[in-house]
Amino acid sequence: MPTAVLERRPPGRSGKRNIVGWIWFGLALAAVLTVVLVPYGWMVSGSFKSSVELQAADVTRPGQEPSWIPREPTLDNYRNVNRTVRILDYLRNSLIISTGTMVLATTLALLAAYALSRWAFPGRNAYVVSVLSTQMLPGILFLIPYFILFTWLRNQFGIQLRDTYVGMIITYTSFALPFSIVMLRSFLDSIPVELDEQAQIDGASRLRILFSVLLPLARPGIVSVAIYCFIMGWNEVLFASVLTGTSTRTVAVGLLEYITAHEARWTMMMAASIIVSVPVLVLFSFLQRYVISGLVSGAVKG
Amino acid sequence: MPPDGSARPGVASKRTGPLGAPPATTAQAQGTAQPQAAFQTRGALYKFRRFLIRTGPAYLFILPAVSAMLLVHYIPMAGGILVAFKDINLFTVSRWYDAPWVGFANFVQGLDPGGFLGGRFWRALWNVSFFGAVTITAGYVIGMAVALLLNREFPGRTLVRGIILLPYITPDSVAYSVWRFIFQARIGLVNMWLMKLGIIDEPVIWLVGSNAIYAVMLAAIWKGWPFAALVLQAGLQTIPRELYESAMIDGASRWQRFRYITLPMLAPVTRILILVSILWNYNAFNQFYVMLGKDPGPAADVPSTLILRETFNTFNFGVGSAMSVVLMGVMLVLTMVYLRALRAAERGQA
Lengths: 302, 350
Description:
The complex is a heterodimer. By secondary structure, chain A is mainly alpha-helical. Chain A has two domains: 2-78, no CATH class; 82-301, MetI-like (MetI-like fold, Orthogonal Bundle), CATH 1.10.3720. Helix content of chain A is 75%, strand content 0%. Chain B is mostly helical. Chain B has helices at 9-12, 21-33, 35-41, 43-83, 105-111, 116-149, 157-164, 166-169, 172-182, 189-196, 212-236, 241-249, 254-282, 286-292, 303-312, 317-349. Chain B starts with 8 loop residues before the first helix and ends with a helix. The model of chain B is unreliable at 1-35 (pLDDT under 50). The chains are: A mainly alpha, B mainly alpha. Chains A and B meet through α3, α7, α8, α9 and α10 of A and α1, α4, α7, α8 and α9 of B.
């Protein structure tokens, strides 16, 4: 009955309801954005307050409440950000460790994903299962043997892994690998095998096929995996809190040093927080499209 | 008769593949000289060779990843389980293999509900389960609501999507440090607002004692829902529009469309999302460590913080390992129960 259809449809599309609908939509959107942005606003505002202003603030005294707009905005927190906590050194450490992890993990994952995608070899399924299962093991379970292993290697063989870049890169690579392999494999699977065969007929070697044919096509996947590895290294706290020392401390744990038992330097911590977030935010917004599709396909399939 | 003359990629590489080149040519040369004999007398060897040529490169390619994971996953995991049965402290840690075996003593100490440590452990396990139940549910509901909200065309959609992802991509230590700042009693935003609204008369101490876990929950929900929204948004885009159109023709209400189309169509994505969230949740550490410090107190302690303290402050490596082995067991059991329940539910539907 076409008339009935016509009768039912218009109410949802009539002009008046449409406008009301858009108003509700706008309000809901505004609420969501507010909830998301309030902590960032508080962080930025805190980073421009003087520590004196913050110490004087008190929610119980009217007129003395902490304010959104700094009473006397100052750049001192940014200027002195490195004075009490060596945050710039930590930034450098994080940059080295995260970049190293990114390069190493992406390379290893690419090779492994290539094998998983292009060959049906005995043990393939067992390997995939073992890769997936390592993802659900508690990190703390690895931390204790790592510590023991690192201590033992140092005492027995003089190999220093604790508090070294190499040790941290190896550690983080291992944690980035499973997810990276699964993600890259799904990307390589989406590239037709016929392309490989064409290249083979033209006389390309296996490695050549991987790097000249597949790599350009899988660039979105590789980029998202690389970003994932970098961000993982940048954010990790548990292992960094135990396995890094004075010479390799990363920003993720170094940031916490602004608050000690004796002094809480909140304003500097907020300034440092902004500085620490910048590399991640820049990387992410730069490559948002790649990363989102990569993360989603990885999460949905893996 | 070249027995492997098919056109499959693994075979086609025999002329050019780095590993495959020499054996392939010899096998072929001999094969043409005396086909029958070569095939029969060297059958097993030949098959093995052919296998090597075809699939050998695959093993070469996964070798680096496998050895890396062997070194840093499987061997340490085995080590961790061994250590759980040894008495290892700061003095014996460098000669851990000489440390005495103590059987299940570590497990008894770490798990006995009557003992101090065991009591803390079960409490921590309860805390993290409660924490997960609340944060995962809330994260899913909010994520779903926002995913539905954004599932239409409007100007600035890309920008809005980027903004709601901010919490997800902000480093944990930054996000939770800011929340720790927000929850400060005297200078914090939360208390200021609650005072202004007249809900409280004097500042609440949020980050110590029994309130702490709720403060962490709120921060974790704020940080966690964008991921759910991201995944659900991707799921929503796979639902064919025709389903909604025909439902509307049939006169289905908005709620009915959601209940009988959207929810069932999102079920596969939801399953993975919830499973992954549950597993991640039992590893929860960053939010507690950053907001509450090394010792969040019994009411907000979670297994990761407890084990970390027991291992690296008390240097009781054996007990720490025993507790983490149990944690792993809990996670395995939960995963299996969850997967089984899903399978049962699927069978019920079909």
